[in-house]
Amino acid sequence: MTGLNLLHRSAALCPSFRLARLALAIVLLMATLAELCGPSGGTQAAWAQSVQPATVHMAQMAQGQAVQRPIPTLQPPVAGYAFPLRQTLTFTVDWRVFTGGTAVFHLAQQGEQLKVTATADTVGAVNLLFPVVDRFQSSMDTKTGCSEGFWKQVQEGRRKVSTDLTFDSKTGKQTQIEKNLVKGTEKEQTASIPACVTDSLSGIFYAASQRLTVGQDVRFPLGDAMRTVTVTMKVEAREEIKTPAGTFQTIRVQPTAEEGVVKNRGNIWIWYTDDARHIPVQIRARLFWGTITFHLQSVEAK
User: Fold this and answer.
1) 279-282: long-range contacts (C-beta < 8 A, 24 or more apart)?
2) CA 293 to chain centre
3) In the chain, domain spans
4) 10-residue block means of pLDDT along the chain (302 residues)?
5) Do residues 206 and 169 lie in contact, with contact meaning Cβ atoms separated by under 8 Å?
6) What does pTM read for this prediction?
7) Could you give phi then psi for residue 294, rounded to 5 degrees?
8) Is residue 116 a contact partner of residue 138, using CB atoms and an 8 Å limit?
C-alpha cells in the first residue's frame, strides 16, 4: 500500500489525524505528484520493479501488451533566467478554516549548484494531536537543471525515517538508501535513470526556469522512489492572487502526469509570479476529502 493510500484510510478513521497529517501531506508539491502517480495498491518497491526506468508503461489488457512512451529530455533553464542567490519563502498551510502548519523553502547558490532545503512543521493544536517535523534537501545544476539528488527526514508521530536518493548521470543510475531511525534498519536500492532528471523538491524551482506561456505545456522527467515520472506542467491562465505577502500578478500552472492517475485522485496547481523571477506564491491541492492551500507569508533575501 502506498503512503498516500494509507493516509486516506487513516484519515477516514480519525478526523483529528486527518487535519494534522493531511494538512502537511503535500508540503512538497512534486513529492505528492510522484506519490499520486503511483498505483492504487501494493508497495513502492513493487511499483518500481514493474516500471522500466527510462519509459512509462501503460498496460493494454485487450492487446495483452505494454506500450512504451519515451521520457522527455530535461531542457536547461531558458537563456537569461537567474536563480536567486539566496531566498527564503515561508508559507502557511491551510485546510478549510484551519491553519495546520508552516512550510519554508530556502534557496542558496553555491558555485553552479542551487541548494534547496525545505521544512514542514505542524503548529498549534494540530501539533499536539499529531506532531510533524519533516526536513528535505536537494541540489540542482543551475546551468543544466539536472538534480544531483534528494534527501529527506520524516518525523511524523512515532515514525522517523530518512531517505537519501542520489543520481549519477554518468552511469545512468539512481541509488536510494532508506533508514528507519526508530528500528535501526537500512535498505538500499538501485535503478536506471535517463542522463538528466529533476527531483521532487528542486523540480518546483526548475519549472520556474522554463518559459511559462499560457496554452503551452512544459514536460520534464522527475526521478523519485526508484522510478522516473514524466511531469507535464499545463500553463493555464493569468490571475491576480492575494496572499499575506502581498498581491501578485501570476501564471497558474497545473502539474499532471502522463500515467493518468492524478486526474482520478485530485488536482494540484502552482501560481508563479508573472515576471522574470517566477516565484511560487501559492500552491493548492484539491483532493476528494477537501482542499489544502499554501499561502505565501513572506519572501526574504536570506
Assistant:
1) 279/89, 279/208, 280/89, 280/204, 280/205, 280/208, 281/241, 281/243, 281/245, 281/248, 281/250, 282/241, 282/243, 282/250
2) 15
3) 3-53+76-264+281-300
4) 36 38 39 38 33 36 52 94 96 77 92 92 53 80 95 80 90 92 92 90 95 96 84 96 97 79 66 97 83 93 92
5) no
6) 0.76
7) -95, 115
8) yes
